[in-house]
Amino acid sequence: MTMSVTAAVKLVVVLAVLVDASAQQSYVSFDSCNFETTSSSSTLRTVKFRICDTSDCSTAGSSSCGLFELPLEQYTSIITSFHMENDKQMCDASQSCQTPEGLEDSVMLERFGYGCEESEFICEKIQNMNDNGYMEAAEFISCKEMYRGNDENNNNIVVYAAAICASSGHKIKIGGFLEKDCSHFNPSVNVDNYLFDPNGYRMKLSYATLKKSFRANMCTPCQLARWDSSSDDNDGMCDELLHNALVLNGDNR
């Protein structure tokens, strides 16, 4: 199979970005969430994002950034997984940071940008999320069944949920669907009306993690603030994002 000139150029650009990303710290920033209706009337949802050589990555068109695109589900899954792992390590460190033996943990927390008391407050909220009536919205990024039972008119209904674009592409939220492949967003299905815990108590979605994937002007370092800061794997998250990304203006980087 012969590769076109355009495809070859894009491949060279991606390889150059991947090499560059592994050589130094890089940052990722959300640009926009987009959707279009395909010929089969299903909806294609994608996210445009920037990867930059500096932490000043929030300005569109910056010469230090490349603009890329991924399917919405893939992008949000990678970003939220990164933040959830980051939170896990932070909470592990916060458990003993205020003890005499916890000096190493206190130093570790500084890499996350938190002190002992602030990290303990955040971790307590994460740990008690379900007890406080909330469920992690990131659990519904990929299409999955949310509810099976009766609606307000006592009709049988099955509600599915998945990530969708919101606020004219500036945000990402969890939307309701009536098909198991989540191909057609149904605005009449309010997911908050169909979210229950296993005991039947009504729950609400917490966007604490998911919003980190689309927060305006937020530049996230690709390196996990982990225990082993000497690791050569500087940009695991960005490498993962770039692996299948469509290059939109990678020449700028």
Overall description:
The chain has 253 residues and is an alpha+beta fold. Helices cover 28% and strands 25% of the residues. The protein is built from five helices and ten strands. It has a five-stranded antiparallel beta sheet with strand order 9-1-2-3-10. Strands 5-6-7 form a three-stranded antiparallel beta sheet. Strands 4-8 form a two-stranded parallel ribbon. The N terminus is likely disordered.
List keywords for this structure.
single chain; 253 residues; alpha+beta; 5-stranded antiparallel sheet; 3-stranded antiparallel sheet; 10 strands; 28% helix; flat; disordered N terminus
Query: Helical residue percent?
Result: 25-40%
Point out poorly predicted stretches: 1-23, 227-232
Q: From N to C, what is the helix and strand string?
A: HEEEHHHEEEEEEHE
In whole angstroms, the N-to-C terminal distance is 29 Å
Largest sheet: 5 strands, antiparallel
Note the overall shape: flat
Radius of gyration: 20 Å
Describe what is shown at a glance.
This protein is α+β, with helices and mostly antiparallel strands and 253 residues long. It is built from five helices and ten strands.
Produce the secondary structure layout:
Layout lengths: L4 H19 L3 E11 L5 E10 L12 E7 H23 L8 H10 L3 H12 L6 E3 L7 E7 L5 E11 L4 E7 L26 E3 L13 E2 L14 H8 L2 E2 L6
Parallel strand pairs: 4-8
Antiparallel strand pairs: 1-2, 1-9, 2-3, 3-10, 5-6, 6-7
Helix pairs in contact: 1-5, 2-3, 2-4
